[in-house]
Amino acid sequence: MINFQNVSKRYNGYEALIDVTFKIVPQEFVSIVGRSGAGKSTVVKLLIGEEKPTSGRVTFGHYDVSKLKSGQLPQLRRHIGTVFQDFKLLPTKNVYENIAFALEVAGKPEKEIDDLVREVLDLVDLGTKSKNFINELSGGEKQRVAIARAMVNRPDVIVADEPTGNLDPFNTSSIINILTKINELGTTLILATHNKDIVDRLGRRVILLEGGKVATDEEKGRYTA
Ligand code: ADP
């Protein structure tokens, strides 16, 4: 479903990715690991069409992401939910409104929005905090809101870029448990991280990037860099 074919990315002469090739099939849970600067975020940006490859091809289902015009990106992104280290929540809206926002902009009926938002709030176990504002939440709770927001469109894939980077070990475990549950319910999961403990505990596929190249790609891998 996701295919990186000989993808290279150069930023102002700097080679961030070099000849990267991998495929991810539906319902996989794949960790993309490597030290800071290895190219993890660049992979995420290419996948969601935020950057274009310098050479090679990125496809997602029938979308040739490397060729999409900016006007076509919203169509692609309906299939991909994103979660980032810094949450990217709207501080002037409460939990419910943060999750409902994109659905309201898309013009969905209020009742449908309400059902969808309540469902994802239950999924991340935040049903009791729907009226709270973002500054009233812990870091772990903020990330659970971001995951709920990413899930509300029922995407095929969740891409989480360093989602536990700002969290303590307890909240890190809870976020990873939620991501695992989401994957078990059928959503493809791509986790970019430099956290060895998480990746080793997951025991799923691991793509290791080193200096912009795929160093290893192993089923049930460990993070051995
Ligand atoms: P990671 O997510 O593994 O830390 P990134 O994909 O963010 O790695 O970055 C890979 C390399 O590309 C780094 O050396 C980074 O400095 C460089 N880089 C990333 N984005 C840009 C950009 N917009 N302009 C120039 N260099 C960039």
UniProtKB/TrEMBL annotation:
Family: Belongs to the ABC transporter superfamily.
Annotated Pfam families: ABC_tran (PF00005)
SMART domains: AAA (SM00382)
GO MF annotation list: ATP binding; ATP hydrolysis activity; transmembrane transporter activity
InterPro entries: AAA+_ATPase, ABC_transporter-like_ATP-bd, ABC_transporter-like_CS, ABC_transpr_LolD-like, P-loop_NTPase
Transmembrane residue ranges: none
UniProt name for this protein: Cell division ATP-binding protein FtsE
PANTHER family according to UniProt: CELL DIVISION ATP-BINDING PROTEIN FTSE, IMPORT ATP-BINDING PROTEIN
One GO CC term on file: plasma membrane
Domain ABC transporter: 2-223
Source taxon at top rank: Bacteria
Biological process terms in GO annotation: cell division
